[in-house]
Amino acid sequence: MRKTTWMAGLIILALVLSLTGCGGEKKVEAPKFPTKPISIIVPYGAGGGTDAIARAMAKSAEPIFGQPVTIINKVGANGAVGMTDGVNAAADGYTVTAAAIETVLHPIMGNVKWKVDDYKSILMTNSDPISIAVRADSPYKTLAELIAVAKQKPESLKLATLAPGAITHLAGLSFQEKTGAKFTIMPFPSGGAAAITDLLGGHADAACITAAEMSQHVKAGKIRLLAILDGNRMKGFPNVPTAKEQGYDMAFSVWRGMTVPAKTPDAVVKVLHDGFKKAMEDPNFIAFMEKGDFGIRYDTGANFHTFMNNETKLLTPLLKQAGLIKKQQ
């Protein structure tokens, strides 16, 4: 009888331990993620490059996450409004922000109270060189012709860029400095789509925007690219020379990625990373990027974060030179 009672006690003890764990506490499984829709804040207007890529990414990511992935355009202050909302969002992984180079530029200029480290990077997705372009019916057939008129008649030609401090604006300023030309720079804070619309409408003589954002208009015969501001020619436009080939050593690009608030749990960030990486490998997403001449550039969240901090170091002197850094109060 005693042996039977002893054996029964061991069995009960084993069952208790299996249910509670070796530490005597009940095991707590990590919450499943995601269990509801994910939102991606795009800090720019619809139709621009960041918006287009985010929408294509969301479409490819939905079946991977098993949840809807929606786009929210929060326009204002050249991306600062949407980016600030992204930083201040709940750190639960359900609000992702489409990061662009302004994620680095705004903190340098003192436009926002947050820093790059207030975000946690998920992954890098894209990088596109900036270009100089004119309408297809423009009298300027080459970069040299455009520069010559801008030298002879300073500020007579209008150059469309994004808002002051945006990378395309800095590229425009550098373009003037390198060439000795002088344009009337027209900034468009809402995004590249508005700048391109003004170029097509004849309100601007030239534009300093990524070639990818103008790709459909170039292929439709409405816009002519004069130069790629990069070290190499673009795959989609092999006949367009770089600025360096034409005597001006310049390299400016627009890059993009995905971020979440810094306090988002690493386990959640990993799920987001793995899902968006698979989305980047989706043939439909790749076809979209190739058709739009967008450059796919994957990197891990850690490397993307390091990249953004390095960009901060590189761009700070250029912004100081342009007088775009606010004095600390």
Descriptive terms for the model:
single chain, D-Maltodextrin-Binding Protein, domain 2, 11 helices, 329 residues, disordered N terminus, 2 domains, alpha/beta
Give a verbal description of the structure.
Strands 1, 2, 3, 4, 5, 6, 7, 8, 9 and 10 form a 10-stranded mixed β-sheet that branches. The protein has 11 helices and 10 strands. Residues 1-28 have low confidence and may be disordered. The chain is 42% helix and 21% strand. The relative contact order is 0.17. Helix 2 packs across helix 9 (266-280), helix 2 packs antiparallel against helix 10 and helix 4 crosses helix 11 (301-321). The chain is globular. The protein folds into 2 domains: 38-127 and 254-321, Bordetella uptake gene, domain 1 (D-Maltodextrin-Binding Protein, domain 2, 3-Layer(aba) Sandwich), CATH 3.40.190.150; 129-246, 3-Layer(aba) Sandwich (D-Maltodextrin-Binding Protein, domain 2), CATH 3.40.190. By secondary structure, the chain is an alpha/beta fold. This is ABC transporter substrate-binding protein. Belongs to the UPF0065 (bug) family.
